[in-house]
Write a structure and sequence with these properties.
Layout (H helix, E strand, L loop, with lengths): L16 H14 L7 H13 L9 H13 L4 E5 L5 H9 L4 E6 L2 H13 L6 E5 L2 H13 L6 E6 L6 H10 L1 E9 L13 H4 L2 H15 L3 E9 L4 E9 L1
Parallel strand pairs: 1-2, 1-4, 2-3, 4-5
Antiparallel strand pairs: 5-7, 6-7
Helix pairs in contact: 2-5, 3-4, 6-7
The chain binds S-adenosyl-L-homocysteine and magnesium ion (MG).
The site of magnesium ion has 5 residues, from loops.
């Protein structure tokens, strides 16, 4: 179940019985299985696992948090870099009935699973999926925004190949509304973001995370912070930035 304690077991993630219990308790009250999107979310996870996609979807409380961020900002257009099987897209679209999502996805199989899942969830007419490397799609989106044929985005979720985080962030800033939020997922990486081991710091995903933190701190176009999260799924966290 999407709203029950996390189903997959992935040895790469860090678990703690307290984190899992707190998610189980709070989600059971704040998003109980009677909610309209429960079945769609559960089916999306089931389908993506059956299709052999990796266990890299966000976790329920965080999917809902992203959706609520969009509600708070009265967002109409969302950019998601890396859709996997559409789990986060379903959270955002199902809690925000008028929102439109543009998803960039490299892998045609992942894109096909996203399409099937968002369609099955009844939100597919509001989800556009652009298949290919995000680094190629983003300049095209920028041209369309510049030409006035595509609206700027009110919220961006960057969750793809971590090495390119900063390139995606920079591109997103250019096509964001003033006041838009940009969230970069998986930057804390069980604390490796600030590891004392140079070998750990040299790995691609950690470099990609540190580059966003360091560059965003120098970028006058945004204000940003890192929020660490523990959950039923892992110890990780995000860069949360707002475009000035
Ligand atoms: N945001 C999703 C999970 C994304 S997992 C969710 O929360 O539900 C990361 C996804 O990024 C994978 O599907 C992967 O294929 C995609 N990806 C990896 N490299 C990419 C690239 N260069 N361009 C676009 N997508 C990419
Ligand atoms: Mg992620």
């Amino acid at each position: 179940m999407s709203t029950a304690p996390y189903e997959f077991t992935n040895d790469e993630y860090e678990h703690d019985a307290r984190w899992t219990a707190v998610d189980a308790y709070s989600v059971s009250h704040l998003h109980p299985p009677s909610r309209p999107n429960t079945a769609a979310l559960a089916n999306a996870l089931k389908h993506l696992a059956a299709e052999g996609l990796p266990d890299d979807s966000t976790y329920p409380a965080f999917g809902k948090f992203l959706a609520l961020q969009c509600t708070l900002g009265r967002v109409s257009h969302v950019l998601e870099v890396g859709t996997l099987g559409g789990y986060t897209a379903i959270w955002i679209a199902s809690l925000n009935p008028n929102i439109r999502i543009t998803g960039l996805e490299l892998d045609p199989h992942h894109a096909a699973v996203t399409r099937a899942n968002v369609d099955a969830a009844g939100v597919g007419d509001r989800v556009e999926i652009i298949v290919g490397p995000a680094i190629e799609a983003l300049p095209k989106l920028a041209k369309e925004v510049e030409a006035g044929v595509r609206p700027k985005f009110g919220f961006t979720f960057i969750d793809a190949d971590k090495e390119n985080n900063w390139a995606y962030f920079e591109a997103a800033v250019g096509i964001s509304l003033q006041g838009a939020a940009i969230v970069v997922d998986n930057v804390v990486r069980k604390g490796n973001l600030a590891s004392s081991d140079p070998g750990v710091l040299a790995t691609g995903p950690v470099q990609g995370a540190r580059q966003v933190v360091e560059e965003a701190g120098k970028d006058p176009r945004v204000e940003a912070c890192v929020i660490q999260t523990v959950s039923e799924k892992n110890y990780d966290g995000i860069v949360y930035a707002v475009v000035k």
